[in-house]
Amino acid sequence: MPEKSIERVAVIGAGISGVVSAGHLLATGFDVTVFERNQAAGGIWLYDKRVPIEAQYPCVKPSDVERCGKDDRRGKERQYLLHAPPGPCYDSLTNNVSTPLLRTKLNAWPNGTPSFVNHRVLKEYIQNTSTKAGVDNVTILGALVTRIYKDGQRWHVHWKSLHEDLEDNVSGQEQSAVRLPEAKAQWPSSITHSKSFRSAEGLEGKNVLVIGGGVSSVDIAREIDPVAQNVYQSTRNGTFDVPASLLPKNTTRVEQVASINIIPLGTSAEAHLPITVHLKSGQTLHNIDKIILATGYQMVLPFFPQYTDDRISVTGATDTVLVTDGTQIHNLHQDIFYIPDPTLTFVGIPFYTATFTLFEFQAIAVVAFFTGIARLASREELRKEYQTRLAAKGHGRSFHSLKDEEVEYVRDVMEWVNTGRASHGLPLIEGHTNTWLEEKQLQIERLEAIRQGLLSSHKPSQGPAEAKAAA
Fold first, then answer.
1. Coiled-coil segments, which residues (predicted)?
2. Could you please report the per-residue DSSP string of 284-310?
3. d(CA 236, CA 214)
4. Under DSSP, is residue 260 helix (H, G, I), strand (E, B) or coil?
5. 150 burial via Cβ count (<10 Å: 0-12, 13-18, 19+)
6. What is the predicted pLDDT for the residue at 238?
């Protein structure tokens, strides 16, 4: 084993990516600190019946997310909600990527665990993994990271609890913020983001428009379809739109929204309900009672203002910027290592993956580099590889998609890790097991059968992280 040049590592977040990262770092002898702004591990699988305080509108750039909208909640409740906003988990949420595909090396699922489980089971698995791996013992709960910078050879982090501000060293991870159009400001109670969705309660007999073509829009349509009078799903017919065949039978897919009737100045929003929506196809939707924006999230790093510049386009990113328009984290090798300084690493960015296992393989790669077991190519070579990948995948959201590429990606990452391990006489680490690959093939066949109408499209609701795993 080579002598480590890095001794102390900090991890931001105690969701699954943070837990597996910290677990493997601890197992290799690193001094680890985990910063988690919530009061428990679990990440997006932490359910909170409260809804977050949404940003002011419009909220279309990463810099917009710091501006909080109006909300009746005050005092300590508001302070807590701003410190640790509730996530997108709703009461009936389950995974639709089977649990065998989500099994980590750090922890097995309890015997008899079904393939599809409620969010509480997923949260408990993450928390149990954290306990078994010793991550609980090095986690500071209630710690909100506010700024990270490097001074000399060391990273520093400013963080705060609800009572104090402290400082330490850190290795970072991305966050997500909602993407919201200007129209939301006109009807604050009638137009909400999917992150605030908790159940179909209150939508009985209503006409509901869900805007967005991704998995969360289909997910929500399934929840409200049985009780609403009419459900519409508006999409842009984008690359990542879920096939219309997966919609529940009473939900209608319509074209992209062109405009929403704007309230004249000096009038009440309630006086103009229901809402009229005009589509680009020329069609008009009348009597809409509720609009749910499943328009996705922005990738933001509020603690890295020096690496954020949303004044430039995604295609105009410099060689050092991390965030531009919020659709991509720039300048990363294999979506993990920050090319200008690979002591800054990211675990958990790719989507269309089996998240738990994919993120663990990324964490193993981080450990291999931090220990000196595996070495990265020169910055010039990493930059060349990055540009080649940009040319092949394009800028923006598509850059981080591993749709149909997950197995190859893991194979490449683990080959790099194991080449280093072999050179030091260490045992190799297995990548995807045969059991995992067989389960993955079953998932692919199941989804294809659904698309062809050979299998019912009604299936367990899919979580905001597991939405990344749909093939």
1. none
2. EEEEE-EEEE---EEEE-TT-GGGB-T
3. 10
4. strand
5. middle
6. 82
H/E/C letters for each residue in 354-414?
CHHHHHHHHHHHHHHHHCCCCCCCCHHHHHHHHHHHHHHHCCHHHHHECCCCHHHHHHHHH
Strand partners, 118: 94
| Helices and strands counted in the chain (H then E) | 8, 18
The region that residue 68 occupies, defined by phi over 0 for left and psi between -120 and 50 for alpha, beta otherwise, is beta
Asked whether 260 and 237 are in contact (CB, 8 A), the reply is no
Quick check: helix, strand or coil at residue 126? helix
Residue 456, exposed/middle/buried by CB under 10 A (0-12, 13-18, 19+)? exposed
Measured CA to CA, the distance from residue 430 to residue 447 in angstroms comes to 27
Place of tokens 């309630």: 270
Give the C-alpha distances (Å, rounded to integers) separating 416 from 208, 400, 428, 431, 460.
49, 20, 11, 11, 36
pLDDT digits (tens, 9 = 90+) for 229-270: 999 999 998 878 888 888 998 899 999 999 988 665 455 555
Cβ-contact 290, 275 below 8 angstroms: no
Q: What is the 3-state secondary structure (H, E, C) of 229-243?
A: CEEEEECCCCCCCCC
What single-letter DSSP state applies at residue 179? -
Distance linking the first and last C-alpha atoms of the chain: 38
49: left (phi over 0), alpha (psi -120 to 50) or beta: alpha
Q: Give the contacts of 293 (CB within 8 A, at least 6 positions apart).
A: 178, 180, 181, 184, 191, 192, 193, 194, 211, 212
Q: Whose CA is closest to 302, among 64, 22, 17?
A: 64
Sheet holding 139-141, edge to edge: 8-12, 31-36, 139-141
Question: Nearest-CA neighbor of 16 among 56, 36, 43, 38?
Answer: 43
Structural element, H or E, at residue 259: strand 257-260
CA nearest to 135, candidates 197, 42, 63: 42
CB 188 within 8 A of CB 196: no
pLDDT 10s digits, 400-440: 999 999 999 999 999 999 999 999 999 999 999 999 999 99
Q: What is the pLDDT of residues 359-400, one digit of tens each?
A: 999 999 999 999 999 999 999 999 999 999 999 999 999 999
Measure Cα distances from 421 to 1, 336, 424, 428, 452 in Å.
9, 19, 5, 6, 45
* β-bridge partners, 31: 8
